[in-house]
Amino acid sequence: MQATLTALLAKATAELPSLRTRADFEAAKARYVGPHGEFTALMKQMGAVPKEERPAMGKLVNEAKAQLQVQLDATLQRLADAEITAQLGPAIDPTLPSPDAGPGTSHPLTLVREEMCRILRKAGFTVVEGPEVETEYYCFDALNTPPDHPARDAQDTFYFPEKARFGNITKKTPEEKYLLRTHTSSVQIRTMLKGEPPIRVVSPGRVYRRDTSDATHSANFHQIECLYVDKNVTVRDLKALLDYIFATLLGKDTKTRFRPHYFGYTEPSFEVDLSAQHLPKVNKPWIEIGGCGMVDPIVFEGVGYDPKVWSGYAFGMGLERLAMLMYGIDDIRYFYQNDLRFLRQFS
Fold first, then answer.
1. Is 135 left (phi over 0), alpha (psi -120 to 50) or beta?
2. DSSP string over 276-322
3. Mean pLDDT of 308-326
4. What's this model's pTM, rounded to 2 decimal places?
5. In degrees, to the nearest 5, what angle opens at C-alpha 117 toward C-alphas 178 and 315?
6. Containing domain of residue 9, as a range?
7. Is 225 exposed, middle or buried (0-12, 13-18, 19+ CB in 10 A)?
8. Is there a domain that residue 204 lies in?
């Protein structure tokens, strides 16, 4: 039997490298190790081997089987690589110049973010950023969001498993959970905890919420939020800044208005509506663009500010909504599809 095993391996060694298609490989594999294959037939002869010779013969059979399997696996991998190479076509020389004209372009969300930051820098704001992985304290507790608030439900917020650890993100209490931030307001808390007023910051960044992905919603999107803390800050200052931002960004014909609303970290709170009928895709007199309000004294007390001395406002809005408004885009999913036909329109 040993001579037969040796001859069978030699036959496979000679035949398998010559195979060129997956169909040929499957046929050869069936001839060797299929139900009626040559190697299978040899293994069935083990019953006729004398009992005292079976251990040694079994070892030879197993070694031969392992060698044959290595050859089969190598052949299959070679054929798979050849199929991928055929699909990819000729090799590309990365040193050749790009066939695309120009050096490329910024994403529309990047364009809107940079323009908003430029406008706010002119108004005296400093751009600050924070981590996308947050704790419940910075995302909810410090912003006066009670434990039973719907925003804290697992159906709305992406929580990490309890065993998750992030060495650079410090918890206030061991019971806190890690989560993906649902707004960039957490950056405002981190900023206030670092120093005393006056503070004037803008915090753009990616945020996450459990939301259905459709034409106007996405589970991850981008926000830009502002915080201004000083003495004698009023709602009038807030309205004046928003008027300035949108007139600069969208044109002097743009108007804003406030509607009473509720947010846990501002009091009073407002929804901000925008009138920009001169822009494409705006078919109604007013559209909602964001939220704002005067910072709640409870929030100031939580970060160690005296609410009798300091006052301030905060507002936030989605960058996707601004970009859709500015460029006449009617589906938020276009921003994430990496379609060059879409992106090249913003060069």
1. beta
2. -TTSTT--SS-EEEEEEEEEPHHHHHHTT--TTT-EEEEEEEEHHHH
3. 93
4. 0.68
5. 60
6. 2-88
7. buried
8. yes
